[in-house]
Amino acid sequence: MKIRHPVASCALGLCLTATVGVSTAAGATPKTTDEGASATHIATINDETYPLDLFRLFYFERVREEQAENNPAFQERAFNEFINLALLAQEGARRGLDEQPQVRQTLALEEMRVLSNAMQQAVLQEAPPTEKELEEAYEAFVSERDRTEYRARHILVDDEQQAKDLIGELDDGADFAALAKEHSLGPTGKEGGELDWFSAGQMVKPFSDAVRQLEPGAYTEAPIRTQFGWHVIRLDETRQAQPPSLEEAKPRLRAALQRQKLAEEITALRQAADIELNEDVVKLESSPTEANP
Length: 293
Known about the structure:
Oligomer: single chain
CATH class of the largest domain: Alpha Beta
CATH architecture of the largest domain: Roll
Order of helices and strands: EEEEHHHHEHHEHEEHH
Strand order of the largest sheet: 6-5-8-7
Distance between the termini: 72 Å
Structural class: alpha+beta
């Protein structure tokens, strides 16, 4: 491989920064076209010129893939990978591999993905969530979400009858914490079965459903079964958790609104599209209404 005009400061004449990208040998700013893309090339391989921006895209994809640091060693490695990629692609085209049906379909699929991603970004940039939309989403978020938190104790055993016997002991006045320390198989047993504050969503459904039905100070009248075993649960107290502030919630709300706008755009495109299926290939099940008029 012949590499002409090497730059002494970096291996293979390559010098990158995380923000600017590849610099020129003299440190000059790369030329740009009217569209804003760099007009500078990074290499000419077998008379084919490769733009600097193409290598930048390749390089920072490699950085993300390997979670690598942007340093001279990785720059040299990535540059050599890029050269190899270009050479193999050229040879593949020379052999006519780009005319093979599978290769053509793969290239077409990749083009679809790239254009789809670009369109999604365009939709998000054209209509970013407004402050009013964020405020309305925040109000709905605060009003609709159950913010009840629970503090409870439980005794976990692997036998239903044992759990029933423990409930009987509680009915006779036994101390819940003492029974948990003696019998519970869970890691909280040594703490008297005490659980830290939790929301219903943090527990498996049978456990959270049972806790919701209890009044503070009450325990389950029957054992509760989960994948962990059989539980006897006592609810100690409840409280209302404070929601995050609007500013704290904005990143999550903004992402949710963007997903909603993207879904609306896709729905509109589907409704406006003329889609004709090849019924010899695609078999759609009839809805109950269509099957039984």
